[in-house]
């Protein structure tokens, strides 16, 4: 399988501030790469360089074999970009917004209209097609924005934080639309600070922090870097907590942690569901009042915390500002 | 879900028209649609000519010319050009807003001529300039203003002023792309426009001014344009001020089009 996006040693400086310190990544054709990182990590800068809006200060980047600096015009005809701000014209209707982009691609009036109609339908905007975009909800604007970036059937699509600022329901809807695009064979580079989003949509992930790649791999590979699964129990009393530790210690692969305040016990374990069943059997008839029990696999928030020492939304937002 | 929506080959059919022209016209169309949907965007260019005329004719007319009717005749070409000067600033504000909203990121990521968004903006501003001049001339005629040179000459006066405004608007395209906020565009714009419009023959004849100011006024491009328009509406020399106006217009284009294009390419 060939790579639709190849990035090598990408460097970008804004004055004294180094936004990218040599980023390498590839996106295989027809797959989704999740570019993860906190605010200010450099995600948007990567997208802006790949979409020819910014020139890199070092390194190189190719989209379908075309150099983003020396062949910028050709790159622009194979990409679609949906930025962090829904770049739609508020006073134009949804239909007019899409037709305008079609005409800029020189699809011709008829073809532009037909294409706009298809995309409006696909993104569930047909009913709102003749309303000015300023009457749209946040989720509808994002959908219109993505539709606009798909007019000329781009081979590679950049989605820069496509669900930032959306309510949970719109976010779920947006995930479905993105998943559909992938099933059609579009190559997507998606930036997000929502680890759940990357987990759900991306085939592979690259985690960047302060302009450098700090981890890469599939979601499972990243989770494996952080460590294994844990058994978490909440019991009814502090005495029960002590009793549960005694009973379950044989299952633990490392020291259990207990919190008397919340009466919660956390045991690093192996063996998945079978271990959970075994734990329940051991506790049965012991008199320990079990309020909650569960097997927890590390999520990407744990990955982030482990890799960077800070959580995904705990970063300096000022640096991302400079990237614009 | 229809897979046909995305899977066909990414071939983009091209039409034989000059692409840059077509794209600029498409973007001009976009701006005109925007104006149509929010007519209040034309408020400044509709009210300004009336307010300026009323102010200058009735406040200063008696003092300057003895009779406001005589002053109206002298003033109309001046107000026509002056309000046009102020109208050209709007393009800088509009471009600055487009950039802030991310619309220009979309344009810049499309395979279109680099000049298209800027040329489109300048072309669509014709609507504003024509509105400004139409309102002014209609109001002036209602007050009793009459051209003495016939309608073809008056039409030519309007065309010359329009052409000059389109050249001058590149200055504000450049400013709009360079400064950080829409408010700053207006600040810089007024700083540049005030001395040029008031230090001209718009309101008074040059020989009433002190010597040093006369030197400025006589070499001010706005004066050349006003004198051209005045000649075409009311009689007087046209050829010389028209040649000067054309020269200034060419100079504005030669300097500010490249500057604006460079600012557009660099703007991040």
UniProtKB/TrEMBL annotation, chain A:
<keyword id="KW-0067">ATP-binding</keyword>
<keyword id="KW-1003">Cell membrane</keyword>
<keyword id="KW-0472">Membrane</keyword>
<keyword id="KW-0813">Transport</keyword>
<dbReference type="GO" id="GO:0046677">
    <property type="term" value="P:response to antibiotic"/>
</dbReference>
<dbReference type="InterPro" id="IPR050763">
    <property type="entry name" value="ABC_transporter_ATP-binding"/>
</dbReference>
<dbReference type="Pfam" id="PF00005">
    <property type="entry name" value="ABC_tran"/>
</dbReference>
<dbReference type="GO" id="GO:0005886">
    <property type="term" value="C:plasma membrane"/>
</dbReference>
<dbReference type="GO" id="GO:0043215">
    <property type="term" value="P:daunorubicin transport"/>
</dbReference>
<dbReference type="GO" id="GO:0005524">
    <property type="term" value="F:ATP binding"/>
</dbReference>
<dbReference type="InterPro" id="IPR005894">
    <property type="entry name" value="DrrA"/>
</dbReference>
<keyword id="KW-0547">Nucleotide-binding</keyword>
<keyword id="KW-1278">Translocase</keyword>
<comment type="similarity">
    <text>Belongs to the ABC transporter superfamily. Drug exporter-1 (DrugE1) (TC 3.A.1.105) family.</text>
</comment>
<feature type="domain" description="ABC transporter">
    <location>
        <begin position="5"/>
        <end position="235"/>
    </location>
</feature>
<dbReference type="GO" id="GO:0016887">
    <property type="term" value="F:ATP hydrolysis activity"/>
</dbReference>
<dbReference type="GO" id="GO:1900753">
    <property type="term" value="P:doxorubicin transport"/>
</dbReference>
<dbReference type="InterPro" id="IPR003593">
    <property type="entry name" value="AAA+_ATPase"/>
</dbReference>
<dbReference type="InterPro" id="IPR027417">
    <property type="entry name" value="P-loop_NTPase"/>
</dbReference>
<dbReference type="InterPro" id="IPR017871">
    <property type="entry name" value="ABC_transporter-like_CS"/>
</dbReference>
<protein>
    <submittedName>
        <fullName>ABC-2 type transport system ATP-binding protein</fullName>
    </submittedName>
</protein>
<keyword id="KW-0046">Antibiotic resistance</keyword>
UniProtKB/TrEMBL annotation, chain B:
<dbReference type="GO" id="GO:0043190">
    <property type="term" value="C:ATP-binding cassette (ABC) transporter complex"/>
</dbReference>
<feature type="transmembrane region" description="Helical">
    <location>
        <begin position="71"/>
        <end position="95"/>
    </location>
</feature>
<feature type="transmembrane region" description="Helical">
    <location>
        <begin position="187"/>
        <end position="206"/>
    </location>
</feature>
<dbReference type="GO" id="GO:0140359">
    <property type="term" value="F:ABC-type transporter activity"/>
</dbReference>
<feature type="transmembrane region" description="Helical">
    <location>
        <begin position="116"/>
        <end position="145"/>
    </location>
</feature>
<dbReference type="InterPro" id="IPR000412">
    <property type="entry name" value="ABC_2_transport"/>
</dbReference>
<feature type="transmembrane region" description="Helical">
    <location>
        <begin position="242"/>
        <end position="261"/>
    </location>
</feature>
<feature type="transmembrane region" description="Helical">
    <location>
        <begin position="45"/>
        <end position="65"/>
    </location>
</feature>
<keyword id="KW-0812">Transmembrane</keyword>
<keyword id="KW-1003">Cell membrane</keyword>
<dbReference type="InterPro" id="IPR047817">
    <property type="entry name" value="ABC2_TM_bact-type"/>
</dbReference>
<protein>
    <recommendedName>
        <fullName>Transport permease protein</fullName>
    </recommendedName>
</protein>
<keyword id="KW-1133">Transmembrane helix</keyword>
<dbReference type="InterPro" id="IPR013525">
    <property type="entry name" value="ABC2_TM"/>
</dbReference>
<feature type="transmembrane region" description="Helical">
    <location>
        <begin position="151"/>
        <end position="175"/>
    </location>
</feature>
<dbReference type="Pfam" id="PF01061">
    <property type="entry name" value="ABC2_membrane"/>
</dbReference>
<comment type="similarity">
    <text>Belongs to the ABC-2 integral membrane protein family.</text>
</comment>
<keyword id="KW-0813">Transport</keyword>
<dbReference type="GO" id="GO:0046677">
    <property type="term" value="P:response to antibiotic"/>
</dbReference>
<keyword id="KW-0472">Membrane</keyword>
<keyword id="KW-0046">Antibiotic resistance</keyword>
<feature type="domain" description="ABC transmembrane type-2">
    <location>
        <begin position="40"/>
        <end position="267"/>
    </location>
</feature>
